[in-house]
UniProtKB/TrEMBL annotation:
Domain Reverse transcriptase Ty1/copia-type stretches: 207-447
Region: Disordered, residue numbers: 39-100
Top-level taxon of origin: Eukaryota
Biased composition (Low complexity): 43-59
Name under which the protein is recorded: Reverse transcriptase Ty1/copia-type domain-containing protein
Composition bias type Polar residues, residue spans: 63-73, 87-100
InterPro entries for this protein: DNA/RNA_pol_sf, RVT_2
Length: 683
């Protein structure tokens, strides 16, 4: 219709006594406008169609042939009359005759004499103290929402820092199911879950997992069960439906169905060292997920399982050639298969961390870190990354490959300036789980001078709730060193928690509500020197008067390891406490020293900074006297490594003792200072 082609503007009509006057003016205005518009449009349309017809005819007919011009088609859509049009454009409720402001929509092509006397463009004469939203709030206009662009932040759902979500963010929503079935019968009613189950059985067929056979005499058959889980991304959007046919491993008997079950798993410190090295060298880290990894591990034992639903053969069972999810030896079988494959292609296994594989070519190195079926890799030469990708695809079926963004609950952001690690999504889920998203935030995780103790007269709380909170917070310390001391201190009261202990844990969660996106920052092309800090709190535990040891290790400003632990012995002096804490710190530093040898770095005389001159003197004094002979022999290995030249003790002023954060509760100023010095920041 012609009305869809009319541009509209917003005008204000002053001193309008009645709506009749407005209607008369608009009738005249629209009549004049439609006459000009209709005449111009018909003329231009006729000429355009005539030229188009002549062009097409001349192209199709010979030069001497005659052609007839087709007749002008008439308009099929009727033009609405002016009163009807005005009624559709006028407000639903009549304006107040005594009011000096009335809003309607009129065409932009209006006579100049009318605009000078009766109409003014609203944006030229609006009062600065009255916004457009306030003017239109009491007027029922169907398109008034189009004039509003700035919405209050309280009405915006979600995280403001994540930006606007478009349809591309929800691409997977059209191809997956959002339900989480508990039974097989429920999953069979959903076509997406049926497809996921078919994909699972297809993988069994491709990998030759089992063979149908009769059950030998004296053999025990193991049951199977379908498990359904929705896999989500860091934003909580379902991206894949995982259907797993797992073995009921609790039916297995040791010595008959399995022998060894141990499977190595990468330490979280090793993951952070990997990312710190990537930031040091300035290369990208990639991740890959082996599809149904456990189905690739060969079994050494003779194992039989029952048939699953849908395949029923009388007196038959499945003989397993490869492991299923749920078998006790499945992780070990998968690791042996993967390590054998990598070692056969010129990779070397780490000396200390056997989940690290590396390949060196001239001055370049290719690194592969394995955490069960999740693999991260990176290289100083991009061609080696492509070669490794092709190598894995030739042997295993991969389900996800690309730059590292989400790994073991860690959100990893790789940019041109460095690598940022945090657990913002986990923090939000944790606060939502315990209904603490709307509580007032706290500036520090623990009050200054607070030392929790056993409250014998206090009311008890549910152990499951308290232990669940502690377990979640301990996992959060993977990237949040600022809550390490407070969480470890609260974990000492899990046997019989009281309300006073629960209030301390809730304060930690309220602090997380204030700093959900805080994380570790590894700048690109920074140094890689190993440095350690150690500190202690003498007699900090109010229950048994044992002290607390705290330490942290850096790779040239990149925090990769930290700890806060109550000592096992009761010390009689502050020198002994500091000496024991320094011994624990030295142990961790020596592990990192051997770990970094696989990266091509050899560190001698690792500097350990301590604020106790007495502990430094004990570590360098070759004589044992009555003040030190009672110290446990196992802590004297610090002196041994200092004498061997593997470590060296240095004094640091208490003001710059970064390990102080892991031994006691601090005030806000001191706490924020140490958090910044540890290399923690916001994205």
């Amino acid at each position: 219709m012609y009305i869809s082609m009319i541009p509209f503007r917003l005008f204000r009509i002053k001193e309008a006594s009645t709506n009749a006057t407005i209607t008369e003016d608009l009738e005249k205005l629209f009549n004049d406008w439609y006459e000009d518009f209709d005449e111009t449009d018909r003329t231009s349309t006729s000429s355009d169609r005539a030229s188009t017809s002549n062009t097409s005819t001349s192209a199709e007919l010979p030069e001497n042939s005659s052609s007839a011009t087709p007749s002008e088609p008439s308009h099929t859509e009727p033009i609405p009359d002016v009163p009807t049009l005005i009624a559709t454009l006028s407000p639903t409720e009549p304006s107040d005759p005594n009011s000096s402001i009335d809003l309607i929509s009129v065409p932009s092509a209006i006579p100049s004499e009318l605009s000078e006397t009766a109409h003014e463009v609203i944006h030229e004469d609006l009062n600065q103290s009255q916004s457009l939203q306030e003017i239109t709030s009491n007027i029922n206009l169907p398109h008034a929402v189009k004039w509003t662009k700035d919405h209050p932040q309280t009405q915006i759902i979600g995280d403001l820092t994540e930006g606007v979500k478009t349809r591309a963010n929800f691409l997977f929503a059209c191809f997956v199911s959002k339900i989480d079935p508990k039974k097989v019968t429920e999953a069979l009613t959903d076509p997406f879950w049926v497809e996921a189950m078919q994909d699972e059985l297809l993988q069994f067929e491709r990998n030759n997992v089992w063979y149908l056979s009769l059950l030998p005499n004296g053999k025990v058959v193991i049951g199977t069960k379908w498990v359904f889980r929705n896999k989500m991304d860091k934003n909580g959007v379902v991206i894949r439906n995982n259907a797993r046919l797992v073995a009921q491993g609790y039916w297995q008997e040791e010595g008959i169905d399995y022998e060894e079950t141990f499977a190595p798993v990468a330490r979280l410190e090793a993951i952070r060292i990997f990312l710190a090295y990537a930031a040091h060298k300035g290369f990208k880290v990639y991740q890959m997920d082996v599809k149904l990894a456990f189905l690739n591990g060969k079994l050494k034992e003779e194992v039989y399982v029952k048939q699953h639903m849908g395949l029923r053969y009388p007196n038959h069972v499945y003989f397993l050639d490869k492991a299923l999810y749920g078998h006790k030896q499945a992780p070990r079988a998968w690791y042996e298969r993967l390590s054998t494959f990598l070692l056969s292609h010129n990779f070397h296994r780490g000396m200390t961390d056997i989940t690290l594989f590396y390949k060196k070519l001239n001055d370049d190195i290719m690194l592969v870190q394995v955490y069960v079926d999740d693999i991260i890799s990176g290289s100083t030469d991009t061609s080696m990354c492509k070669e490794f990708e092709s190598l894995m695809q030739s042997e295993f079926e991969m389900s996800m490959m690309g730059e590292l963004t989400f790994f073991l609950g860690l959100q990893v952001k790789q940019s041109a300036e460095g690598i940022f690690i945090n657990q913002a999504k986990y923090v939000q889920d944790l606060l939502k789980k315990y209904n603490l998203s709307e509580v007032s935030p706290m500036r520090t995780p623990m009050a200054t001078g607070l030392k929790p103790h056993k409250d014998l007269s206090g009311a008890s709380v549910e152990c499951k709730l308290y232990r669940g909170m502690i377990g979640s917070l301990l996992y959060l310390t993977t990237s949040r060193s600022d809550i390490m001391f407070a969480t470890c201190l609260c974990s000492r009261f899990q046997s019989n928690p009281k309300e006073s202990n629960l209030s301390v844990v809730k304060r930690i969660l309220r602090y997380l509500n204030k700093t959900p996106t805080l994380g570790l920052w590894y700048p690109l092309f920074s140094g890689f020197d190993l440095l350690a800090y150690t500190d202690s709190d003498y007699g900090g535990c109010q229950v048994d008067r044992k002290s607390t040891s705290g330490s942290c290790q850096f790779l040239e400003g990149k925090l990769v390891s930290w700890s806060s632990k109550k000592q096992n012995c009761v010390s009689t002096s502050t020198a002994e406490v500091e000496y024991v804490a320094a011994a624990n710190c030295c142990s961790q530093a020596l592990w990192m020293q051997t770990q970094l040898r696989d990266y091509g770095y050899t560190f001698n005389k690792i500097p350990i900074l301590d604020d106790s001159k007495s502990a430094i003197a004990i570590s360098t004094n070759p004589v044992q006297h009555y003040k030190t002979k009672h110290i446990d022999i196992r802590y004297h290995f610090l002196k041994h490594h200092v004498e061997e030249g593997n470590a060296e003790m240095y004094f640091v002023n208490t003001e710059y003792q970064l390990a102080d954060l892991f031994t006691k509760a601090l005030n806000e100023k001191r706490f924020n200072f140490l958090v910044e010095k540890l290399g923690m920041s916001y994205p």
